[in-house]
Amino acid sequence: MTISSVEQHRKESPKMVNCMIITVSDTRTPETDKSGALMTEMLLEAGYNVGAYQIVKDDYADIQGAIRSGLANETIEAILLNGGTGIALRDTSYEAVRDLLDKEMHGFGEIFRYLSYSEDIGTAAILSRAIGGVSGGKAVFSMPGSTGAVRLAISRIIAPELRHVMREIYKDIK
Questions:
Q1: Average pLDDT, stretch 73-87?
Q2: Nearest CA to 133 among 141, 124, 125, 123?
Q3: Which pLDDT tens digit goes with each residue over 93-123?
Q4: Could you give phi then psi for residue 127, rounded to 5 degrees?
Q5: Is the pTM value of this prediction over 0.90?
Q6: Which CATH number does the domain housing residue 51 bear?
Q7: How many domains does the chain contain in total?
Q8: Where are the beta strands (DSSP E) in 88-157?
């Protein structure tokens, strides 16, 4: 039996990835941040590490500042944001993330919206501006802030594929 290249890549992937969680919200606190807590729980259950956590206001400069702190932290390998991805004027996560990416993983947003459409919210999925990519040799994923969106993104896309993503990033820089 031959092994596929994807299976081979997964075997060559790092066993541990150290993540930073950023919740984008004007109202949440560490005590009320259910989505940040869910992200932490799900990542830990999937065998990842959460090395940093932060809540920032839905403000372009604040979001970029939090991402930049993760990029500057040598122990952080992946940055995961929740919140601020909608189409309201106040929602700025998409722009803040997009403007820092070296490469965009279009498939993350596309698959997230497809899964949201087919499994959860129907045509309202068009309102999501989930985005993923690579910045400074680190994976970055930004998703809506609802617990349903976080559960979907982590369980169906990020947890199964993050090690493979890191393998692809590392093959060029390590």
A1: 97
A2: 141
A3: 999 999 999 999 999 999 999 999 998 788 9
A4: -80, -10
A5: yes
A6: 3.40.980.10
A7: 1
A8: 103-104, 131-135, 138-143
